[in-house]
């Protein structure tokens, strides 16, 4: 009895999860594996279009001969690279029409013309003609002929499905792509973005955890940058930071903080004189990191605030009795209470910042020293149109991600053991 | 009274005052008033003087009289002696000073003599300072977005600092950018598409996620543990590594430029987090309820519809709002999959607008306002639900 019940339970469970699993598998897991496949191939953006045999039908009447019509099919192979094999052609004729002097590749069967054109090489073109004659002496209807569309079929190789593999893409990724520059930029961006958002998260959580007028309003406002659409916010910042007509530069110049406008998003290095030393600061990258912090500290804030509100009040009261000041309370009570949250946040944000694409893409497009790995995927795949290269960079990202996740789950496991 | 506390208090409060006044001055400058200097030295000196006087006077004067007195002195020196300023500027300064004097009122000699008073003073003012600064830094871009959408290209180029809006012009002229983006750039259509895609994603995601989450939360089956851990791992994979294969496959299947294709991708990318959030909630529902239902010979469909759904409205709303927000704000896939202006979403349409260097910035900002307002309104209105969604789903973003 219970055996059949558990069988029913299992079957029900599989029915319930199947749609979700199928969708996630086909849209998320399949592409990740497909990346591996594509990364070992030389594929450009133009190669991914499947070659198609195409025909454009033109109907012409013949002078001096009103009961005949000429039909011209402009045949071509849509691909510039691949051939199409066994091209078959089919077109229907209105009832009262018969072809004359038909091309030898074709035959007629019950009002239909069938042709076999054999193989078409890449860029193949042909103007194929048929003469038509009315079989019952009635006038030929040009319009009716035109509206019938010919059907063409053919076999072709899908460049993605053949088994020619190459290591070229990976060689290029590591040796011709300024790989270490890319990697260091990505880590710089990820690390400082993560640290910054956590620091501001702690500060703001500490703020909102106190009682003051307008506290709930403040909490909503703090989440605005995260909730707002990235496109709108990135363009607003771009206008704000514009060197000539941007508000920030004009304000700073107006109050004589700077003498010359700063091209915050378009300048790779800013040389700062610091006690006689010339320091080179990555200006555009820093700006992008600041945007990143501005947009994502709300998440850290939310997490840390939730943790802070769970800290028992007695701890603080006891500390007060012992004569601890605010600073001691923060260091000895608050910080230890939130270290767990912070370490988890750090890992999660690190992984996510590592993969951030939209923010940098919209602000600088990867120019002026802000090219990170995700930006490089887009550039390789869609700007340079080298799909294989793009996939190879994706594979590098996935590999690094797996390493991060391994560390992350190790740490979480360790923490779970401790508790 | 400890001298150390007094010095700390005087310094930090005057710096706080300076930051308040400076923000006011920035806002005033943006109304086209010429102000070239923050007058750091003068404001700090005045601030220190007021703070010290405040402690010195203590409770000997009624606090209202004291505050008004400080405010009047400061306003007079700042707005008439240092630089002659318009009345409304001075009213603002007066208000700031009243606020400031009321805040410092409690720091009398007795207070400054207590233990840790120097630290407490610093913490108090840092809190105030933080509130003012964070509000300003966060709200300013939104403020700029809104104002710019009401300006014209010419005035923006002549004086980028002039944020004043002429309310005397007629309605049509004031909202010109909005009329243009709706008439010329078909933003009405994009709003519909964005709404359709986002709402569609919410519905389809819930349809797929609720049964799956129920199975993970309640039923025993082979591979259950594997499934629930892989949900989180899958969720960590970023969109950027999916883009190239999806692009190629969608191109070959003819799904690019179709709103349906976008909907499938959005659903798949939000499903893991939806399942994760829902199963957590389903676990918290007492099992006895379902056992009773099984006695009544309800099948799983009946259990989900009649018992689970009514009890999990809050969790489902959280998931729905969170998924809506993700789908509405999504940019990468809409950039990759849509290149026909007839099937753009709002985000893609704005990016397309900005691609043309000729597009005046006020149109761009009007578009940004249009895409931002719905999300912010929904967020403010349903904040409770969204915050719990954000907290649960914030492994991503």
Q: Major β-sheet of chain B, in short?
A: none
Determine the CATH topology of the largest domain in chain B.
Answer: MetI-like fold
N-to-C span of chain A: 40 Å
Estimated helix fraction of chain A:
40-55%
- The CATH superfamily label of the largest domain in chain A reads MetI-like
**Numbering strands along the chain, what is their spatial order in the largest sheet of chain A?**
1-2-7-4
* Number of separate structural domains of chain B: 2
Can you identify the CATH class of the largest domain in chain A? Mainly Alpha
Number of helical segments with 4 or more residues of chain B: 20
Largest sheet of chain A: 4 strands, antiparallel
Low-confidence stretches of chain B: none
Indicate the overall shape of chain A: elongated
Structural class of chain A: alpha+beta
In percent, how much strand structure appears in the residues of chain A?
15-25%
The biggest chain-chain interface is: A-B, 93 and 102 residues
Describe the fold and architecture.
The complex is a heterodimer of chains A (419) and B (397). By secondary structure, chain A is an alpha+beta fold. In chain A, the strands form 3 sheets. In chain A, strands 1-2-7-4 form a 4-stranded antiparallel β-sheet. In chain A, strands 5-6-3-8 form a 4-stranded antiparallel β-sheet, with no helix packed on it. In chain A, strands 9-10 form a two-stranded antiparallel sheet. Chain A folds into 2 domains: 51-156, Immunoglobulin-like (Sandwich), CATH 2.60.40.290; 177-385, MetI-like (MetI-like fold). Chain A has helices spanning 2-39, 142-147, 168-175, 179-208, 215-227, 230-241, 247-254, 283-309, 313-321, 326-354, 358-363, 373-383, 387-418, and strands at residues 53-61, 68-77, 84-92, 97-100, 106-109, 112-120, 125-134, 151-156, 269-274, 277-282. By secondary structure, chain B is an all-alpha fold. Chain B has 2 domains: 3-148; 179-393, Orthogonal Bundle (MetI-like fold), CATH 1.10.3720. Chain B contains 20 helices and no strands. Chain B has helices at 3-29, 40-57, 63-82, 87-104, 109-113, 117-148, 153-158, 171-174, 176-183, 187-218, 224-236, 243-253, 259-283, 287-295, 300-311, 313-329, 332-337, 346-355, 361-381, 383-393. The two termini of chain B are 51 Å apart. The mean pLDDT of chain B is 86. Classes of the chains: A alpha+beta (419), B mainly alpha (397).
């Amino acid at each position: 009895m219970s055996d059949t019940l558990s069988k029913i339970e299992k079957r029900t469970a599989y029915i319930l999860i199947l749609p979700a699993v199928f969708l996630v598998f086909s849209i998320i897991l399949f592409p990740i594996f497909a990346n591996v496949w594509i990364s070992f191939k030389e594929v450009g953006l133009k190669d991914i279009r499947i070659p198609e045999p195409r025909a454009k039908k033109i109907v012409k009447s013949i002078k001096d001969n009103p009961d005949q019509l000429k039909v011209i099919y402009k045949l071509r192979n849509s691909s510039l690279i691949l051939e199409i094999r066994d091209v078959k052609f089919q077109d229907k004729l209105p009832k009262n029409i018969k072809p004359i002097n038909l091309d030898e590749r074709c035959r007629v069967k019950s009002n239909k013309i069938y042709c076999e054109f054999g193989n078409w090489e890449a860029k193949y073109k042909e103007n194929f003609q048929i003469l038509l004659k009315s079989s019952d002496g009635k006038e030929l209807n040009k319009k009716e002929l035109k509206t019938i569309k010919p059907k063409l079929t053919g076999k072709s190789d899908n460049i993605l499905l053949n088994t020619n593999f190459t290591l070229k893409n990976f060689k290029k990724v590591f040796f011709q792509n300024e790989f270490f520059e890319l990697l260091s930029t990505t880590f710089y961006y990820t690390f400082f973005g993560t640290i910054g958002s956590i620091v501001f998260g702690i500060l703001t959580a500490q703020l909102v955890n106190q009682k003051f007028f307008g506290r709930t309003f403040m909490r909503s406002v703090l989440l605005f940058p995260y909730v707002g659409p990235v496109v709108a916010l990135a363009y607003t910042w771009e206008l704000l930071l514009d060197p000539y007509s941007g508000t920030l530069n004009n304000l700073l110049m107006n109050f004589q903080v700077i003498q010359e406008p700063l091209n915050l998003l378009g300048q790779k290095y800013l040389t700062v004189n610091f006690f006689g030393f010339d320091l080179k600061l990555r200006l555009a990258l820093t700006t992008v990191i600041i945007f990143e912090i501005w947009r994502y500290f709300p998440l850290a804030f939310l997490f840390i605030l939730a943790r802070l509100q769970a800290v028992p009040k007695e701890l603080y009261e006891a500390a007060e009795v012992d004569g601890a000041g605010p600073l001691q309370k923060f260091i000895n009570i608050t910080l230890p209470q939130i270290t767990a949250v912070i370490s988890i946040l750090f890992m999660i944000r690190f992984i996510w910042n590592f993969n951030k694409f939209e923010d940098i893409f919209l602000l600088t497009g990867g120019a002026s020293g802000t090219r990170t790995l995700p930006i490089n995927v887009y550039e390789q795949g869609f700007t340079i149109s080298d799909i294989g290269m793009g996939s190879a960079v994706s594979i590098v990202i996935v590999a690094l991600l797996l390493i991060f996740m391994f560390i992350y789950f190790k740490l979480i496991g360790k923490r779970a053991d401790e508790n | 009274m400890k001298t150390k506390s007094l010095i700390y208090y005087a310094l930090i409060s005057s710096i706080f005052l300076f930051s308040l006044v400076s923000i006011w001055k920035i806002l005033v400058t943006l109304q086209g008033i010429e102000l070239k200097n923050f007058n750091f030295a003068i404001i700090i000196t005045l601030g220190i003087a007021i703070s010290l006087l405040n402690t010195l006077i203590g409770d000997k004067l009624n606090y209202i009289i004291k505050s008004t007195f400080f405010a009047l002195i400061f306003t007079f020196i700042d707005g008439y002696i240092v630089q002659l300023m318009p009345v409304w500027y001075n009213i603002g300064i007066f208000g700031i000073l009243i606020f400031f004097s009321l805040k410092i009122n409690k720091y009398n000699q007795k207070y400054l003599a207590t233990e840790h008073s120097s630290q407490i003073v610093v913490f108090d003012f840092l809190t105030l300072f933080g509130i003012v600064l964070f509000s300003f830094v966060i709200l300013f871009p939104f403020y700029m977005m809104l104002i710019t959408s009401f300006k014209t290209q010419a005035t923006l180029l002549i004086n980028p600092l002039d944020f004043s809006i002429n309310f005397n012009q007629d309605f049509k002229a004031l909202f010109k950018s909005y009329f243009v983006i709706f008439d010329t750039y078909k933003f009405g259509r994009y709003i519909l598409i964005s709404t359709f895609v986002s709402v569609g994603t919410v519905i389809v995601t819930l349809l797929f996620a609720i049964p799956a989450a129920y199975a993970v939360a309640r039923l025993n089956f082979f591979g259950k543990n594997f499934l629930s851990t892989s949900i989180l791992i899958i969720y960590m994979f970023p969109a950027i590594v999916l883009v190239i294969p999806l692009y190629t496959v969608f191109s070959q299947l003819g799904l690019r430029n179709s709103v349906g294709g976008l909907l499938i991708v959005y659903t798949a990318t939000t499903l893991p987090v939806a399942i994760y959030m829902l199963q957590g909630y389903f676990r918290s529902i007492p099992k006895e309820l379902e056992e009773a239902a099984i006695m009544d010979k309800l099948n799983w469909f009946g259990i989900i519809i009649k018992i689970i759904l009514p009890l999990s409205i809050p969790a489902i709303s959280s998931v729905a709002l969170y998924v809506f927000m993700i789908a509405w704000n999504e940019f990468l896939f809409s950039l990759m999959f849509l290149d026909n202006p007839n099937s753009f979403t709002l985000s893609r349409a704005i990016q397309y607008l900005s691609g043309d260097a000729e597009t005046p910035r006020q149109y761009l900002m009007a578009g940004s306002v249009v895409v931002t307002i719905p999300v912010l309104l929904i967020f403010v209105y349903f904040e409770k639900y969204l915050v719990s969604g954000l907290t649960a789903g914030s492994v991503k973003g």
